[in-house]
Amino acid sequence: MNTELIYLKDNNLKQVTAKLIKMETTEQGQYCIFDQSVFYPKGGGQACDVGTISNDSKVVFDISYTGFHEGQVLHYGDFKDFQFAEGSSWELKIDPAVRLTNSKGHTAGHLVHLVMEELVPELTATKGHHFPKDAYIRFDGLTNVDRDELILKANENIKKYIDEGFPVKSEILSLDQLKKLVKNIPFNLPEDKPLRTIAIGEYFPVPCGGTHLNDLSELKSATITKIKHKKGNTVVGYAFD
Ligand SMILES: [Zn+2]
């Protein structure tokens, strides 16, 4: 049974009541799988949510890491010898500060992608890495414009869009719908997750399974810090708050 990925439909929900499917102990540690989850599991260039699970008897465990495997979210924690009953009810809660940081990073990444492709249309984004201390978007192709000037212009545009407070819209789609809507389909679309697109304002939608802000005004800032050429790619580093 796959875990229903609540965060795909609702970015704002921070907790949910879920039923335990199973608890496993492996060499990597102990993890729980539930029928649904608000936890974003690490992947797609985004760090995972952390938080807690608790039951009616006030048993609380920290969830320190979440991963995704074959359609299921694995919630890792130190559950010691606790006997989990299959089908038992648990309250899953994420840490809202960690979620906010990760959503800012991911949303800022989309903004960098949008602004760069607007200014340099020959670039095609191929990878996003949205971790706070090492955030970048990698594009296929090279820029033959002055990179310092490009950074200045791109940052002006980013600031303008943040000031406009454009909404971040998401939509869950079938593969056929996605093919009609999206200009570059990545070759690595997930087969075990629903497909979803993200669009900033009225700009082109892109496939994405991460968590995002509701609108750009929730970003205090996003700034391109460097543009590097590497093996036929352009790597655009950015900072965000
Ligand atoms: Zn995204």
What do you see in this structure?
The protein has 241 residues and is of the alpha+beta class. It folds into two domains: 4-94, Elongation Factor Tu (Ef-tu), domain 3; 99-240, Threonyl-tRNA Synthetase, Chain A, domain 2 (2-Layer Sandwich). It contains four helices and 16 strands. Strands 6-5-9-2-3-8-7 form a seven-stranded antiparallel beta sheet. A four-stranded antiparallel beta sheet has the order 10-11-16-15. The protein has a three-stranded antiparallel beta sheet with strand order 12-13-14. 34% of the residues are buried. The structure holds zinc ion (ZN).
Write the layout of secondary structure elements.
Blueprint: E1 4-5, H1 6-9, E2 15-26, E3 29-34, E4 36-37, E5 51-54, E6 60-63, E7 65-69, E8 72-77, E9 89-94, H2 96-119, E10 124-131, E11 134-140, H3 147-164, E12 168-173, H4 175-181, E13 195-200, E14 206-207, E15 222-230, E16 233-240
Parallel strand pairs: 1-4
Antiparallel strand pairs: 2-3, 2-9, 3-8, 5-6, 5-9, 7-8, 10-11, 11-16, 12-13, 13-14, 15-16
Bound molecules: zinc ion.
